[in-house]
Amino acid sequence: MNLKQLAKELNLSFSTVSKALRDSHEISTDTKNRVLAKAKELNYQVNPLASSFRKQKSRTIAVVIPEVVNDFFGPVINGIESIAQEKSYHVLIYLTHEDMQKEVAITQLLQNGRVDGIMMSLSEQTSDTTHLEALKEKGIPLVFFDRTVDQPDAPKVTTDDYNCGIKATEHLIESGCKQIAFLSISQHLSISNKRMNGYLEALKKNNIKPDSALIVSCDSDDAKNNERIQELLKRENRPDGIFASVEKLAVSTYKICEELRLNIPKDVKIVTFSNSYTAAFLNPSLTTVTQPAYEMGREAAAVLFKLIEKKKPASPIDNIVLNSILIARNSTKSE
Length: 335
Prior knowledge:
335 residues, Rossmann fold, 3 domains, six-stranded mixed beta sheet, 12 helices, 12 strands, elongated
């Protein structure tokens, strides 16, 4: 039994039956149910290889991420693969190592039909989006997750970084902090800017005047980041609270506090965004804003497959924002 014979049995066009089996939005629910019932009755089985050749599909998707030495991207990939396996797709992982030029090279490589769709979380250096516009112009389905850009216009799956930035800062204020520093990871990244804007909004709501000297711009250079944090904590009027935009900056702060013999949380309290299971076992345990990383991967993959299967076009509804959770631990404990 092949698709042509199935269509003949149903007295429907080849195209209608094919779309019905793909759950296309163009076909009514009654027709879909009729086609599925007949397919089951006649034991019709889809030939993935023939289908792939007909549609010129690679049955492969690409996931472009900045790094893997991060407890966030691992669960995201697991979530993506759980959906890809349901769809009988392969997943290719590409690393930019926080380098925009590598990101550009990867996107150029992927323009040749190697994959049916791309999911991407941007590098911290990405300031020019010309290479991303090129993907859109080629008609390659594209979904951003976590680290996103406004242009090109494509579906995005993120967490509520702005509101959680407010929540993390207000938690430090409620814990007694008066001088709160913010450690930024990049001036280009959406996540860093949204978290910083949340930090600034929380200060404003609590009548605390922002101090530009307490906003420290960090990057991928760990040695320089350590120097910046050390300089911050050596100030005569040093901060009594630190909001690290990403986990690695919080870990660096722990190290610097130990070197300077500053007690956490007595001398300085720390909160960060982190999905690391080890946060609970640090000394003291680290207060974190924990993101639903696995769920983000599944949601982003589900949106991508809608585009690939053309069940419906991308729309503002596909800009999904997931909720994160603040988990208070000993690094922000009040005396």
